Structure formats: structure tokens, C-alpha cells
Amino acid sequence: MDLFGSLQELQSWQAVLLAVVLILVLLAVVNHAAARWAERRNPPKGAFIEVDRVRLHYSDRGSGPPILLVHGNVVTGDDYDISGVAERLIGTCRVIIFDRPGFGHSERPRWRPWAAMEQARLLHKALAELGVRRPVVVGHSWGTLVALALAIRYPADTAGLVLLSGYYFPTFRLDAVMVAPGAVPLLGDILRYTISPLFGWLTMPLTKRIMFAPAPVTARFRAEYSTAMALRPSQIRATCVDGTFMVSSAKRLRAHYRALSLPVTIIAGDGDKIVSHRHAERLQAAISGSNLRIVAGAGHMVHHVATDQVAEAILMLTGIAGKPAYGAAGAAAPNPRHPPEA
Description:
Layout (H helix, E strand, L loop, with lengths): L2 H39 L5 E5 L2 E8 L4 E5 L8 H4 L2 H5 L4 E5 L17 H14 L6 E5 L1 H12 L6 E5 L9 H10 L3 H7 L1 H18 L6 H6 L2 H4 L2 H22 L9 E6 L8 H9 L4 E5 L6 H4 L1 H12 L24
Parallel strand pairs: 3-4, 3-5, 5-6, 6-7, 7-8
Antiparallel strand pairs: 1-2, 2-4
Helix pairs in contact: 4-5, 5-11, 6-7, 6-11, 7-11
């Protein structure tokens, strides 16, 4: 037995292990610093409200019939500003946008369930705190699950639904499998502070193209979307957990679709590479009286490509006729009842 050789081999493995640990620590420090830098570059633009010990960031602008805009995964509530949907509504409606828990500047406490029903319950309480009564609820992508959960759980408090590029029926999702490790306690923490942000930076250009395909990424999205905010460890955890809960949330909700009796408009792009527009067609068949619009040439980010069509559909449910109205000089004026605060 070569004891000296065995000791040398052990020392070599120890050196490799130490090097790996040091690299992971360095990545964690860099990613933590990058997250703080991203938050300084993208400070909160709205106000904060605490509900069930969860601090939520939101904006509340305009006056008129209330509209709640619920964003999807990877993005934040700012997505409705970047798309232009919010500014088309603020001139005639009261528009409320939350960063969903864990996204943007909203908190997502650990060790709590965050499936669609749980997020809907939290937003319902927040709306009550803000004095919002029976809004039209607009959801995009993962946000459609939250919108549907609000209508199913609180039908008397929901005036109508506009659902954009949604995933409505449980199917096998490779992306849900791929993000599952990031949702696992401890393992997910290690990944999101070390290699996940690096992987995200490398793949984000392709991710954006897939999100918009077959349409090109809009100039405004390229200019205003913050990759750095999306790849903070805290938001990576929210993205992974929501991706993991996506199939189970759809499975939990689908049994209630036929019981919905409120106005529902479903919009999808015929070229969506993330969720097939067949989901929209199935949902329209399941919800009696619902309306379906398939937008030719649009992908998953249909509200960025067909902004006026989306805004028009929302206004139709509020009972406001005519074309979408802009705020003063196209700007989003704050609601004087709820002024922004840091």
C-alpha cells in the first residue's frame, strides 16, 4: 500500500475542494454586490404597503374604474409601464400595479406557500387596504394564474378578467423541471448566489428573443428592462418557486373555470413560443361567454406588440368606450390619494 501516494491524492482533492469553495464565496460576494447595485440603479417608483407581514411595492395612478395589472415571471410590475399598457389606461382609469411577492421591490418571506391562490389572497387583502372595489383584473403569463385565482376565490370582488398569454391547463413543462433545483431550500440558495446569475446573464439575450418571437424585441423593452434586477438572488428564488408551482397551480384552478360567470377576455399571440395559444382556445371553450382574441404575428409578450388591442380590451370590460386615453403628455400621473413614497 502506497501511503505517501494516498496522502498526496487526498491533499490534491482537498486543494480542489478549497478552490471550489473559494470561487463560490467570491461569486456570492460579487452577486450580492451586483444586486445592491441594481437596486440603487432602479429605486422604487411607487409606494409600499404591508399586508400579513409582507411588504409589497405598488403604484396607484389615475382615477376612474379600477384596474389591477398582475405581471408574469422574469419581469416586475414595471413591465406594464414598459409595454405602454399602463399609460394608455391612466387617463381614464385608476390603475394599480403590484410587484408580486419576491419581484421588484416586494418581499417574499421564506417558508410560506406562494402558489397562485396564496398570492391572490395577499393581493386581495392589499386591494381592500387601498380601498379598491371590484377591479378589472389583468394578468400576463404567470400573472394569469393569480388573476384567475382572484376571480375564483373572490368572484363578488372581481369585475372582469383580461388574460394575456396564459398557461391554464397542466402539461409537462421542461422549464418547470429546469428551475426546480432553484426552489429547493439550501441547494437553491447556493445556486442563486453563485452560478444562477452568471447563467442568467449568458442566456438572457436568447430568453428575450424567445419571449417576443416571432416579433422582434421592442426598442423600449431593450432600453428599459433591467436584467440586473431580474438576476438578483432574491428574484431568482421567486422566479424558480413560481416556475415550480406553475403546473400545480393550473391543476388546482382548472376545475373552477366552468363556474366563472364574470366577463372574461382572453388574448394570445399565434406565435407564442413559451405557452401555445392552444391554451387560450381551451380556456375560451371552458368559460362560457368568454371572448378570445388571437393576435397574428405576436408572441408571449403580446401586450408589448399589440398594446392598443390589449388596452382596448381592458377598457371594454370597464365599460369605457372609445380609444385608450393617455395621461397628460403621455405620462403616468400619480394618484393623489396614494402619493409615491420611498
